[in-house]
From TrEMBL:
Regions crossing the membrane: none
Biased composition (Pro residues): 14-26
Ranges for domain ParB-like N-terminal: 89-178
InterPro entries named in the record: Chromosome_partition/occlusion, ParB/Sulfiredoxin_sf, ParB_N
Signal peptide residues on this chain, from the entry's feature table: none
Name recorded for this polypeptide: ParB N-terminal domain-containing protein
SMART domains: ParB
PANTHER family listed in its UniProt record: CHROMOSOME-PARTITIONING PROTEIN PARB-RELATED
Region annotated Disordered, chain positions: 1-40
């Protein structure tokens, strides 16, 4: 019987090493080819190809970033958030009919003083024209103040004004809404000014709006229903006598509504009032308001209206001292005008809905405070 032999086989813990790569094929003369050695031409071609590829990738990334920045610029421009300093002589105000009286602005000097002291905190808004000039969309008073400062001082700092650039091609109706909504926030724009804009808007063939009713609804969509009704009434009043008025923006709401109601009820009165206004010198807003109130009461003819307006022998009464100021109260801003025998307080509020007893109490407290102050002086 044969004996079996036992063999111990030890398997290695690590895998077997890979076989070495075959050496490069020998050249014709029998010498091996070195992988690390290439001719200078091949090296240059390879490096140039890699550089071109890297350049193409970089250019593609740059184009993508430029496209992104261009879209972002257009977006910000549409929002009026791109601001630049625009020379005053490159800005025109002819595209939109303004909703502010351009002949008189007693607060323009205050705005000029503020700009001179601390600069312009709220840039105007302009739209660029095809020829590189600009059309004003928002900020007529700010632009007027800059022009006045530049004319007065000649300083270079006032030769150009900070302006937000609005993207080209916005429809005319949208541009009007931008202008109107900004001024609705301010409480000193009068019903006559808003009504005049509605009339002009309806007369502009480019707006596509023929009726004043529709113009008010579109322009003042942000205003309350009652306020829009007031604007419509003032628009009707201006349509009847507006060409004869010199200080329409000074007409208080109550007086304007009463005039419109009276002239609508008795149509011949409109022509009569126009004659009175044309034949009566009115040196200031108070004189014109006196004519309107006197005519409304039925106590004034043309000559009597002239005397009531402060005329003697055709000459205006001069030297009437007055004080104008603004006062901030919790419910808004009060505009006050005081002169001999008269004090007027005006703000955007319907005082006719306040209880009569509360009004009397408030008036009594007002004069009591005045008398107390005089006694302590």
């Amino acid at each position: 019987m044969s004996k079996r032999r036992v063999f111990d086989i030890n398997f290695p813990a690590d895998p077997a090493p890979k076989p070495a790569a075959a050496p490069p094929a020998p050249k014709a003369d029998g010498a091996p080819v070195s992988e690390s050695r290439r001719g200078p031409m091949a090296t240059a071609i390879s490096e140039n190809a890699e550089a071109l590829k890297a350049r193409a990738v970089a250019e593609q990334n740059i184009r993508a970033e430029n496209d992104r920045l261009a879209h972002e610029f257009v977006r910000l421009k549409a929002l009026g958030l791109v601001v630049d300093r625009i020379p005053l002589d490159q800005i025109s105000t002819s595209k939109l009919v303004r909703d502010r009286a351009t002949s008189r602005d007693p607060e323009l000097e205050e705005l000029q003083a503020s700009i001179r002291s601390i600069g312009l905190s709220n840039p105007i808004r302009v739209e660029e024209e095809a020829d590189g000039s600009y059309q004003l969309i928002q900020g007529f008073r700010r632009l007027s103040a800059y022009r006045a400062l530049y004319a007065e001082t000649g300083a270079e700092e006032f030769a150009a004004i900070p302006a937000g650039l609005i993207a080209k091609g916005q429809d005319l109706q949208g541009l009007y809404r931008r202008m109107v909504d900004e001024n609705l926030v301010r409480r000193d724009i009068s019903f006559a000014e808003m009504a005049q804009l509605a009339l002009s808007y309806a007369q502009d063939p480019d707006t596509g709006c023929d009726l004043v009713e529709d113009a008010v609804s579109h322009l003042y969509a942000s205003a309350g229903r009652q306020k829009r009704n007031y604007i419509r009434h003032f628009a009707e009043l201006l349509d009847m006598i507006g060409t004869c008025l010199q200080f329409a923006e000074a007409i208080p709401r109550a007086l304007g509504l009463e005039l419109k109601k009276r002239l609508s009820e008795e149509e011949p009165l409109a022509e009569e009032l126009r004659q009175v206004l044309q034949n009566t010198p009115r040196p200031d807003a108070e004189a014109e308001l006196a004519v309107l109130r006197g005519f409304l009461s039925g106590s004034l003819g043309s000559a009597e209206a002239g005397r009531s307006a402060g005329m003697t022998g055709g000459q205006a009464k001069t030297g009437v001292a007055k004080t104008t100021l603004r006062c901030a109260v919790p419910s808004g801003t009060v505009r006050c005008q005081a002169r001999d025998g008269r004090i007027e307080l005006a703000m955007e509020r319907d005082f006719s809905v306040i209880d009569r007893y509360r009004l009397e109490t408030a008036i009594a407290a007002f004069f009591a405070a005045l008398e107390e102050g005089e006694a302590s002086d």
